[in-house]
Each structure stands twice: as C-alpha cells, then as structure tokens.
Amino acid sequence: MNENFQNLNPTDKKLFFSKNDRNDVRLGEIVPQTKYEEAQVVIVGCPNNEGVKRSGGREGTELAPDAIREQFYKLTPFGIKIKLFEAGNISVTDSLEESHENLYKTVNKILSDGKKVIVLGGGNDIAYPNGNAMAETFGVGNWLGVNVDAHFDVEIADERNNSTPFRQLIDEKLIRPDYFYEIAFQTHFASPIYYRFLLDSGVHLSSLEQIRSRETADLELREMMRQKFINHSNSLSTFFSFDMEAVRSADAPGTSFSSPLGLRAGEFIQIVKFAASLTNTKLVQFTEVNPNFDVDNRTTMLVAIAMHRFCSLQK
Q1: Each residue's pLDDT tens digit, 93-120
Q2: Domain tally for the chain?
C-alpha cells in the first residue's frame, strides 16, 4: 500500500501486542498479516496537535493515535468477521493545512477503493479533510455527517482549528446543512449565535439533555435519521465524528477539554454501535484524545473498545 500512499508512515511494530498463546490470539497478531487489498476496514492515524494548539486547547493529541492502537491491539478478535488493515500515520508538518491535505488525499483514495475508514486524531479539525473526502468520493448531496460532540465546532476564525471544521464544510458547500447532525452538545458550552446559525441552516440538533430524555442514547439519533434514510432508500453514505469531549471526564479524563458532564461510556458505545449498524457508514473518526491527561488508559481503552464494537458489526 505504501507505494500508492506516499503520505503514510508505518506503524511501530511494538504496538502490535502478542500474547504468544494460540488459544488467546490478539488483534495485534492478526491485523499486521492483512494486505490492503483484502481489507474491508482501514485504520489511519493523524497525529496532529496544531488545530488544538490554535484554539488554546490542552496539547498532546498528537500522541493519541499510537496510544489508542496500543490498547486496541491488545483486544481479541472475538466477533470480528471482517479484515482490518493498519495503514499507519499521516505525515504531518508544521502546516495544519498541509497535514489536512495529506489526510484528505489518503482517505479519498481509501474510500474510492470501496473500503471503510477509521481515522484516529488528533484534533477534531480533521473532520474538515475527512468531510471533504466524503464529498469528493460520494458527491455533496449523497452523504450525511454526524458530529457527536460537547461543542458545535462551527466557529468563525481567522485560521482553521479544531473548532472550525463543520463551519468550513457548510460554508464551502461540501455538506448540505439538512444532512448534518449535531449530537450530544451541551447547552452551557453552546454559543447562542452559533446555535441560531445551525438552526436557521436546517442542521438537525440534539442536545445531551434531549438524548438523556430517551430510553437509550442512540434512540434520539435513530429517530432523527430514520426519515432521511427512508426517503433516500438507504443510499446516503454516512460519516460519524466522535469527539471524545462528548464523554464525561469520569469515563474519558484524557481529552483536550474535560467536563464532569457528558455521555456515559455505555451511552457512547451505544451510539458507536448505531453508527456501525448502518450499512452505508463509510467513515468514523475518533478525536480530541489527550494521553497526557489520561488516567489508567481509560480514554484510550474506551476508544479501542468503540473501534472493536464498530468492527464487530461489519459484514
């Protein structure tokens, strides 16, 4: 694969855990054996902290992709029937824009090859190149975007950062606002001006409080999206952005911005499983993990389990 993807650096072999027990094989022993051509799902990392730095967030997200991998490759393949390919990390530079371009080209190629992608950030700014790749591969009117996040990330700024990606996608007409969902945002972090912008644009909004009013965390989103899929015969491809700041600090302490309120770990996994259950979910990203502030690998392990749940529901 690296012959076709000049912007990728191979994953450190030390991250591929091996228990050396043929009766207890781990993903770290299986995934490295898979060829790109055989895989249904490809894992890509984007170890960039520049977007977080620009917005004044806690630095350290560049460590997240490999920290997540360290936990993921310790897990067993129980329930996973598809093949995974580990693509490595995107080459990042001091220029956030250049790093985004590298990610965009890589994700666009993988999607064009008919594969699904799991992208590990980095800051949530990577939603912009990933969304751009969705628009390029499937067409602007043929994809849905879902941002599971405590914040809107539609700010206006002099330069792009981890709070601007969905504003960029909307303003550049790379996504239809009525095909975009803001899920689990917390009203005490929400700008009334940006809320009105989203509302007036036709974006679907569901706060943490609204989600909590349902029997299960994914029910609100499921109901909101149901009609869209009925109208389009399940033809719309979907991109889920999982910003780990959406999860309460008790379950995910290692993030760029920590809050005592948020989704509980089980609620978060429920939404990931819903994303995985949709046949046309093509891309998921996990962002804003900061290992410098993690406790007992709680946050990285939660993402690793989320990846496992996503993969176990693929066919």
Answers
A1: 889 999 999 999 999 999 999 999 999 9
A2: 1
